## 1
Amino acid sequence: MKYEDYFKKYLDAVEAKLKTVMPAEEKHPPVIHDAMAYAVFTGGKRFRPVLTLTACEAVGGSIEKALLPACAVELIHSYSLVHDDLPALDNDDVRRGKPTCHKRYGEAMAILAGDGLLTYAFQLLAQVKPAARALSMIEELSTAAGTYGMIGGQVADLAIPPEDRDLPALDYISVHKTGKLIKASAVLGALAGDAQTENLERLRRFGEWIGLAFQAIDDMLDQDGYVQVLKAKDLRLKSRDLIAQSKREVKPLGKRGEKLIYLADFLLERIPRRTHVAVDR
Amino acid sequence: MKYEDYFKKYLDAVEAKLKTVMPAEEKHPPVIHDAMAYAVFTGGKRFRPVLTLTACEAVGGSIEKALLPACAVELIHSYSLVHDDLPALDNDDVRRGKPTCHKRYGEAMAILAGDGLLTYAFQLLAQVKPAARALSMIEELSTAAGTYGMIGGQVADLAIPPEDRDLPALDYISVHKTGKLIKASAVLGALAGDAQTENLERLRRFGEWIGLAFQAIDDMLDQDGYVQVLKAKDLRLKSRDLIAQSKREVKPLGKRGEKLIYLADFLLERIPRRTHVAVDR
């Protein structure tokens, strides 16, 4: 079954919740709310919020309890794309076939829209009940998104010239730029589902493995990153290993964890059988 | 007595706490931590964190309890300056006699340093105990910093052409761009001091009046903003009124609130007797 069909209920729930929580109002700043919405409603796969909902369910929680953190995670992801696309960073004009936020709304508004999304993610999490849970989520997400997490990965991506990227450097970029937020998505879901320590750590490790697999497979699809230092065959092997490890982590959860297994298998299916460009060396 | 002498204990405490909490570590992202520190340690007046400490003390708390939120407020202020100075926004090369963050570290790093400071402010607040207090602070600060607060003011500042700025437009920009964060600085101090509702609202109103006075006086000193639509005499009158109102709010706090009165009087002293440029019209 296709990802979109299998997770229809989850995707619809995330979309509906995002529409409800996103700020939109008359008054001076409507343009920034337009720019923020433009960045959030882009037809993405919603991999991170779906992971949050699925992780919550896997530890026995209802998906409703995970919707706020799922939105917060997606806002952080969206802000990071808006700022990464800016001329001073990756200078990308197009994302998913549409003009990037700064091409559509101008650079100033894109910077502020990113700031707004980042700020708003924490404002949303502050609404989670009870207070202790909200706080654990804010701690987790701010750490994952900050300079020891996602921003640190982006800095390394800017600071290390392509010719100096060995496997440890690429691992560092991948773990931080992509892995930490995906791991946090799983952890926030487990927290929303009131997971006991053992399951929380299980989901944390699941998020870690699947985050690394996600980046490795993306690199194969984009012919970027890891393909520069790993033979195509080895990168396929690495990805399959990571996904196998992630699945092993959540097997003990039984039937409740089966959607996590599906999510891992969905990534597995994206692994190209053969890479288009011969990069074996 | 000079501000720096009167508040020496407070300024030293803020400086020491900022030095302790700011991230600084070996590994790939040291440059971003350098850029963040560059933005934070600029020799500013620390008006907002001093207000936080003073507000805490005014409701009976010790300044130690207000140091974390005071730092968080200053990080938000610092991030906003870094992003406002960017070429796509105000395009400022110099701030307080030194190259702006993007002139020193490049545009990409300045964008990410701003993101890092914003993220880190919430990470710091998540450490406040108890959880319910931390959460109230995060809610307050994220709202004040977001699109209905500071970012909204910045958007209006970009979106409304100078020739269309009437008094309501200037009030909107001033209230949002400057006022909301100053108000939040007072509220976070009151929350840190475990203020009862009546005093919390008192400090909220104090923060509101003093935030508006702060901007009005800054405009007089910079010959900007309000000086375009108000006669110099009327603007002086407006500032004095706002400061008088702020002082009335905290008078009932008695001796404990006297440092807030000093803070208000300190602003009063900054009002120029005569403006250099004749803008009366």
## 2
Amino acid sequence: MKENKTVKNESITSRDVDFAQWYTDVCRKAELMDYSSVKGFIDYLPYGYAIWEQIQAFANRKFKEHGAENVYLPCVIPSSLFGKEKEHIEGFAPECLVATIGGNKKLEDPLIIRPTSEILFSDMYKRLVSSYRDLPKIYNQWCSVIRWEKTTRPFLRGSEFLWQEGHCLFETEEEARKNTMDMLEVYDSIGRDLLAIPFVKGKKTEHEKFAGAVATYSIEALMHDGKALQSGTTHYLGTGFAEAFGISYLGRDNKLHAPHQTSWGVSTRLIGAVIMVHGDDNGLVLPPEVAPIQVVIVPIRQQAEGILEKCHEIADKLKSVGIRVKVDETDHTPGWKFAEWEMKGVPLRLELGPRDLAEGKVALSKRYNGEKLVGSIEDVEAEIPALLKVIQEEMYQKALAFLQTKIVDVENLEELKAALEKGGYARMAYCGEPECEDAIKAFTNGGTARCIYKEEAPEGSICPVCGKPSKIVAYFAKAY
Amino acid sequence: MKENKTVKNESITSRDVDFAQWYTDVCRKAELMDYSSVKGFIDYLPYGYAIWEQIQAFANRKFKEHGAENVYLPCVIPSSLFGKEKEHIEGFAPECLVATIGGNKKLEDPLIIRPTSEILFSDMYKRLVSSYRDLPKIYNQWCSVIRWEKTTRPFLRGSEFLWQEGHCLFETEEEARKNTMDMLEVYDSIGRDLLAIPFVKGKKTEHEKFAGAVATYSIEALMHDGKALQSGTTHYLGTGFAEAFGISYLGRDNKLHAPHQTSWGVSTRLIGAVIMVHGDDNGLVLPPEVAPIQVVIVPIRQQAEGILEKCHEIADKLKSVGIRVKVDETDHTPGWKFAEWEMKGVPLRLELGPRDLAEGKVALSKRYNGEKLVGSIEDVEAEIPALLKVIQEEMYQKALAFLQTKIVDVENLEELKAALEKGGYARMAYCGEPECEDAIKAFTNGGTARCIYKEEAPEGSICPVCGKPSKIVAYFAKAY
């Protein structure tokens, strides 16, 4: 419910006082989501869902450039089928929601509500693929998935989230590995070009890789509080699923082969990343490319002659060049409107009052740093799109500078622990063994290898945990 | 798997020999869908899903014109919540899929996999709405829903289907009823302007209305076999859900009121309607507006100098004016390609061979009636878009003429039975009581009231079942 107050949103928690509470406040007050009555689930409200639709549109364009086609597979997986790939089932079983009753009758083969769809894609591909002529298959699905979670947080961890999952088959390992890396690059571009988020990216360690994958790669964003957020993963699955499901194709050599498989996904977690990378004590801050509303026009003394007309004229001009714009002509005060649209993170505010109108000018304000500019009414169609591009780039550079100050190199567990307590990434050489990562996590109160920085270690380096020779250098961080 | 044959698809069943088998053949051979290993569920393959994406894009534009915003709510509904609206739960209980285990533990409150979301929207609105200032809420959701079905048929009836569901709240009954009718008009436009399908539309009888609705309206398409297909519904729900869920708002009169609710939905059934209204013995026939590929270019003697280059030049020209076009440069013969793209229902085929090239001409073939035309290479950007508009209109007029020949007026049960056996709609006056509709259904072997034609009956007419005065005239038909 909105009330007619001069100032609103006065009650938001400061980001540096209580980051978790600040995050929840922004999610709620920017009207991105609401807690559902279904425990562990959220309602995606129009403004939050609109951000997801921007991400979908951008990703769909990029996927298409790589030959991907969209499909839709069932939202349930029979238990009998789910057990076919052993590592996979072991990885997911504890998080499953299982249906046991259908049409008032007990199901003989209970149905698992889709936690991910490697199984169903593999099962379908077995029917669709029999010759090298049927390859490659580069299919993608937009859907929701269920992971039964005990502790949940909006967009970051929940019992249901929205995502896309690509599942592909190729003739050769080389093509499949290329697809895995191409998609990692697409995801990097979602950060760089859409969300103004720089990622650390690379291969996951054995300990952290996906259940059933040969190799997993991830993009990792750094939040304002110094914690990492895994924001997307791509997997080279080898031929394991194909063999488990009996997928084979008659090759150019007239012999049967198992195709090489990949999968890749990003989710509504990306919305969480945007909030925590760019947000501030006045609320959400959206980069122009992903903002559902890029420019909000606030009339000053909107009853004055010609003000509203001119605001709409400017809005129409901006719409004609593809800008997403809104005129706020509600009966709230300008101050209320400023706070409202700051909370919602609209990248650029345009004010127009009688004096501006007389002078042929508009007052502009950048949301991300509060900078004030003066524009010309005459030139809005040219000036504003250019200014939005500048804001996008500035926000990326600001986030990149923050990230760069938060990467340090360490050589032992004490240094690692101290670095992770300060927040950010610490790069350390070690043996790469899962057991040592467990020890590191315990010692640092939660530090994990986010991804591999270098697949070799400096000459003579030894693992600070087990004392054996180091084999890799990884980015460690505390993570969401 | 595709093989390199001169002719393909020779095995499709004739539409007039076995319509059900013909339908299945088209669904499979046009590669719209595949049967999943999950019993009762289907895989939406890229070509079928692309049709759905066209419908989504069209509908989203229309919904937005009516102020709708997209949201996403949980895919599960707690049993305890589901029971709140009594008629609603009774209507849906027999079709529910129920999850009873989460994270390896028995759930205290089992979760029903969403069959429709009136419940969750009502529950959410209770939290979001408290003042007339919060109204109207015009929210829409794109998702899949589960209805546990015993007999299933691709796109028409399945345990899972894709749809959109709009759920709205208004201050007044008048606004809510207007929204109900506005959305019926949007759905009619999806038929008329996108799918080239004329609908019979109107209010549902008491017997046929939605569980929990005050009034239900539907669009009903007529299939080639003379059976009706309910293709979309809009509901005025009154204040029943609001009262059951305790939604109220402080009105302009400073008193508490229950808001008036609507819901409306169309589903992937629309794909089934397109297949069965327009398809023929060569396969699918798509109207240009909804076709994922509007023009297929088939090179004749594609090895000849300049042919492929010119084909791509034409494709680029067409793309530049927004036409969805594909050049088939596979190594199949032209005959194979013709059959392939006929099966997939591409509305217009463009052929270019050496002689055409020399003469500056292209050969054109309309899919829906096989008509051949000659076009000019020079003018493709102007000619082809205009021709596609003509095809769209011709297909609509053809379907409309078919529909009009299939509506008859009858006055008694024998006439009704005979008319329904021939296929199509029979309009009959009767009392409008559910018991008489049950008797009509039994007597006619399945004829049901599809929607009301007139909410009054001719002077002196009596119900042919019970002998009481007739109150309405309804469209009766056998239906999918």
## 3
Amino acid sequence: MNVLKVSSKSSANSVAGALAAAIRDEGESEIQAIGAGAVNQTVKAIAIASGFLAPTGVSIFAQPTFEEIEIDGEERTAIRFKITSKKD
Amino acid sequence: MNVLKVSSKSSANSVAGALAAAIRDEGESEIQAIGAGAVNQTVKAIAIASGFLAPTGVSIFAQPTFEEIEIDGEERTAIRFKITSKKD
């Protein structure tokens, strides 16, 4: 599965479009965010994608978990959002 | 239903405890957050609460939506998280 990587500078609308496409194609997706700004953009993207998918009867659900990752030799804590979907 | 209000200064652990208690009692809950810092604390609280509930076979799912609210006569955009649960 493709993991969408979101930063504080990511456009919530663009991430929402990519997320909605992944849900339509595969029914689920994953998003990784590091830092408060990135987490905020991710949550906005999920809310926007919900609006994109609602007219097709699809609801999406997020399950955030902590993930330890290494960037440039430094340990960082990321949030990984598992996104699943359900059709009415 | 009780709505948990989270700010950027809220302790993620305390919110997680309140959320886990609400899920145990009612099976669902709602959280309101205004601003990136508050959204980040909310997501961390959901991840922590998932860990509290996992040993009892309960998974939780977040559905964020935008909500327009008025604070001191000013229009603000909040994120409202609907939290539902499922038992294995």
## 4
Amino acid sequence: MAGKSIGIGMIGCGTVGGGVMKLLRDQADLYAHRLGATLRLRRVLEHDLGKHKAKADLLPAGSITADADAFFSTDDMQIVIEVAGGCGLISEYVRRALASGRHVVTANKSLLAAEGHDLFALARQHRVAIAFEASCGGGIPIITALQFGLMANRIDALYGILNGTCNYILTEMTRSGKDYATALKEAQAAGYAEADPALDVGGQDTAQKLAVLASLAFGVRVTGDQVPVEGIDSLQVLDVRLGAELGYDIKLLAIAEHTDAGVSLCTHPCFIHTDLPLAQVHGPFNAVSIYGHATGHTMYYGRGAGEMPAAAAVVSDLLNVASGWYPQAFAQLKLWGDADQPATLVDSDDLVSRFYLRINALDVPGVMAKVTKILGDAGISLSAMLQHEAEPGRFVPVVITTHQARRGSVLAALQATQALDEIDGKPVCIRIVDMPPG
Amino acid sequence: MAGKSIGIGMIGCGTVGGGVMKLLRDQADLYAHRLGATLRLRRVLEHDLGKHKAKADLLPAGSITADADAFFSTDDMQIVIEVAGGCGLISEYVRRALASGRHVVTANKSLLAAEGHDLFALARQHRVAIAFEASCGGGIPIITALQFGLMANRIDALYGILNGTCNYILTEMTRSGKDYATALKEAQAAGYAEADPALDVGGQDTAQKLAVLASLAFGVRVTGDQVPVEGIDSLQVLDVRLGAELGYDIKLLAIAEHTDAGVSLCTHPCFIHTDLPLAQVHGPFNAVSIYGHATGHTMYYGRGAGEMPAAAAVVSDLLNVASGWYPQAFAQLKLWGDADQPATLVDSDDLVSRFYLRINALDVPGVMAKVTKILGDAGISLSAMLQHEAEPGRFVPVVITTHQARRGSVLAALQATQALDEIDGKPVCIRIVDMPPG
């Protein structure tokens, strides 16, 4: 790859692909200086003719094609960028690129979360590399930090805010007291949420990114569908407000923890203390807190999405691959877990944590004695309680925070409280995550 | 370097060196798995016999020596770690290591800030690499992020909290209202400040780290002594308090900005808005905010010092060098600025910024008219004012914040106010840094 010119192909030319084209056009001199070689975008594969037209001014005539065979037969194409997203046909294209000896730079977290280990094995087999900085955390170089910067560490835990749509909505619910539906509508109007926000607000996008990061951090085999997921779409603004009174901010967290029983993974709305660095991450920003056994706590913050941040992550990968060092590192280092070693995952019921519980209780004497007896009998010890004054005889929200307890036991106890006449509706249970400050 | 065993030498075995030895001993299996090769610490060069004894249990007998010739004649020593610090003799050792074909991993910011460009040229000449993650930001992989993770960006600006001692003292002054001398004594008692804190509190340590980061970020040649420095040792707690009333936190910042006139570098106590991510960095923690033209704002946070965070940065470098990819990247990429291209630096008087000004003014009619006239005549426009009620006829602190103004003009105007009979003592001028939120 030390030659004068390096040929690039790109699959997909939507938002991120357009950003990649702009960077390659506008910063050609900078990249040629850093690399000692010229990057040439030779061919783009895109099935959507509308995108052909929209990007026509960024490429020489005829370089965009909808014909996969024409694309893969392009001469002098050493690196293939994949920014189309999704699995299925795109997976076939990525495999075809690898099998034909092309390095792949991809932004595709859903593909990596589902088929990462097979793809990495295929890449090694054909002596090429896969670079994937843009798959998690957008413009934040979190993959580079995990792969190389924290190399000396055994990673103990990782907590990430990985979806800008959710964080924008939760920030609005917290700051302005808006309910979920209103905050979602505003996020859509502001361009921070898709017309169909299901994958974002349902937590699946975050869970896929967590699978990628956990595979890398712990060197184990884990897929996106192994991550227990709870989204923000059923979150009530009442709980956001009551949590704030107790000193907590609500965040949709991707959590991976190394425990004696195995790797604990989950994606759900959590309360974290307002003093923690992650609690300061507002609006569409993303951040990841990583705890290394030697380095302690480090945090990485930035824009998790958007045309140019994502494109910059893709092009950084492209430069690192084109320079030849990344393929060498990919071949040499055991960074992505051994394909033969599936992760031992902790069942989410066995998760031990603190919890925020809210029940709707009739304000009559003796109710709390019954509720706390149920919790006590289940071995759950209480940390704090919050109930505002209410008219006697009416239902009123009562908040209880627990000390460390097994999640399964907490959920069972909550279900038992539902059988009480004095309790109305389904109780709410939100995990409280106590990250070590260091 | 693909062999089974890679020989390491280490210069210095103080705190960080001890941490490196512990990591190599305790994580030998992890590193062998990641690397596919075994790291062997063969010889340590240390002139302090006390440290020989203290570290005796971490090394085979006879492997610590005070004899440089014996050290450099060690067989099978492909990589030399330098954790002794300082220039002079240590510079000679580093040069000797490079000239004898050994890669160097160093934590030495003062050496790199003074002689980095010569050392990098020497390394290239002998086809070896210098890795230096531990030189700035301790355990935070900020060098890796700048070298590789943000590769596609033209870096526009960089703002760093790079000295844990100073940040600890400033946090105490802010939170508890202690004066500088008291906060320093407590930092010393808590182990966050040296018995002789001059290089930390005077800002030189921060300035050296800034020289390293700016060379890397902007690809220019700059040395530590080219950075204008102001420490925190003359900072008054009154200004910390008045700044807080206006919504600002005080931080000792390392600042590098790309401007049309050249690179603007400085290290001084600054006010930043309490809402900014950098304002949330408390106690001994460090953080660096980087603004890339495409990625926008990213921030990197963690422990800037301490045995294990620094040792982990050294050992991460060691693994990256030993795997062979880092030497290839070092040889291939134009990351550290061309030695022939010294930076065009903006004179600190030509710095354009907002400023916090405090004067001690007699509370009589007409004083503020005179002061504001002097500022207005100098073309300095006011943004806000703050004066608490005081007894008439007494001196009272008056705070003025400016809009964007040239620093030289502001200082000249302040000096002119000193000539007024109604002004007592030397006015205070502290820069207000308005970082873009994105």
